[in-house]
Structures are given as C-alpha cells and as structure tokens.
Amino acid sequence: MLMSWRCIMNETIVIDTDCIKNEDIKSTLRDIINDMNDAGYNAYKQITEYLITGEVGYITSYKECRSRIEKINRRDLVEFMLKEYTK
Predict the structure, then answer these.
(1) What is the pLDDT of residue 8?
(2) Residue 23: which of 75, 69, 84, 66 has the closest Cα?
(3) Do residues 6 and 15 touch, judged by C-beta distance below 8 A?
(4) Less CB within 10 Å around the terminal CB: N or C of the chain?
(5) How far apart are CA 79 and CA 87, in angstroms?
(6) Using the 8-state DSSP alphabet, how is residue 40 labeled?
(7) Residue 50 and residue 14: Cα distance in Å, rounded?
(8) Please, where are the H alpha helices in 1-87?
C-alpha cells in the first residue's frame, strides 16, 4: 500500500485516505489487466462487460483476477477511472 503523508515533529500526521485508496485501485487494476492479457484475454473488453453487467464471470480466475477485482467496489472503480480519464 502506498502512503502519501509526511511526519512533522510535534504535529498531527495527516493521511490522505483517498490517495491511498486510488493508488490501491490503480495498482490492483493494472495487475489484473496485465494478468488477463497474459492469459490471452482482451482485458479491457472483459472488464468493461463486468462493469456494465456486474457479472463477475467476465473476469478470469487466472492468478486470482476475479477475487481481486471483487474486492474493489464497482462504483469506486468507475469513479476512479472517470477521474483518471479527465485529469
């Protein structure tokens, strides 16, 4: 897990949890895409169908891709992708 914070003497440490969550989503999604492509799938099409339908069967169980993507809330994933696209 990547953390975006700094320690300042005698002050409260503030952790940007949105940043941590987004980095986790980005890292997990990147790994899933790479693993699905390695397995011969078109990861972008498969993930798109999963996001549209909610049917996890579009995601392969190869290298636990399915269980990893299920740990990410679909709404959070769509929101993250929209934010990344519009940066």
Answers:
(1) 53
(2) 84
(3) no
(4) C
(5) 12
(6) T
(7) 35
(8) 17-38, 43-53, 65-70, 74-85
| Residue 30: burial class (beta carbons within 10 Å; 0-12, 13-18, 19+) | exposed
Provide the pLDDT for residue 15.
57
pTM of the model: 0.76
CB 52 within 8 A of CB 74: no
Domain boundaries, given as residue ranges, for the chain: 17-85
Distance between start and end Cα atoms, the chain: 22
Q: pLDDT tens string for the chain (87 positions)?
A: 444 445 455 677 665 667 768 889 999 999 999 999 999 999 999 999 999 999 999 999 999 999 999 999 999 999 999 988 998
